Amino acid sequence: MNDRFKNTSVVVMGVAGCGKSSLGQLCARTLAVPLLEGDDFHSPSNVDKMRAGIALSDDDRAAWLDALARQLQAHPDGVVLTCSALKLRYRDRLRAAAPGLRFVFLELTQEEARERVAARPAHLFPVSLVASQFATLEDPRLEAGVLSLDATRPLEELGAAVVRWVQGSAASPAMEVRP
């Protein structure tokens, strides 16, 4: 692990299709911390629901968020977690598990998300559920410890912005930083 980023834990969040996995992989590699794919921790019943085009409820997400919280606690030296983290209470559940947890919010329009999700037909998440994600999303941009980025920017640019933010450097004009 890179000592510069020791104890750095980041959640890459946003709606389906925003690029959480791609940015999460790049950030984990650059920060030299493990990557946890949030989708890997869904129960089989949650996966079945999503594949069937049924939006998950708060009750469906509760055990999933608990599993993610345990994973954050199991990685006290730092980790990158990909997780939609759509509601404030979901983010607060994760924050409680890992004090100092940071969130990178990848923003895009509903149409952009639909196009991206449609381009990956093998994924467990169907296009029909994109609207439900936007309906559930509670804007995190005014919360402390959140970096908001335009998800349509090039991946390398997004990754560099996250690293600068983690290092505490000045933000570039292509992003919003909330202290």
TrEMBL record:
<keyword id="KW-0808">Transferase</keyword>
<dbReference type="Pfam" id="PF13671">
    <property type="entry name" value="AAA_33"/>
</dbReference>
<dbReference type="GO" id="GO:0046316">
    <property type="term" value="F:gluconokinase activity"/>
</dbReference>
<comment type="pathway">
    <text>Carbohydrate acid metabolism.</text>
</comment>
<dbReference type="InterPro" id="IPR006001">
    <property type="entry name" value="Therm_gnt_kin"/>
</dbReference>
<comment type="similarity">
    <text>Belongs to the gluconokinase GntK/GntV family.</text>
</comment>
<dbReference type="InterPro" id="IPR027417">
    <property type="entry name" value="P-loop_NTPase"/>
</dbReference>
<keyword id="KW-0418">Kinase</keyword>
<keyword id="KW-0547">Nucleotide-binding</keyword>
<keyword id="KW-0067">ATP-binding</keyword>
<protein>
    <recommendedName>
        <fullName>Gluconokinase</fullName>
        <ecNumber>2.7.1.12</ecNumber>
    </recommendedName>
</protein>
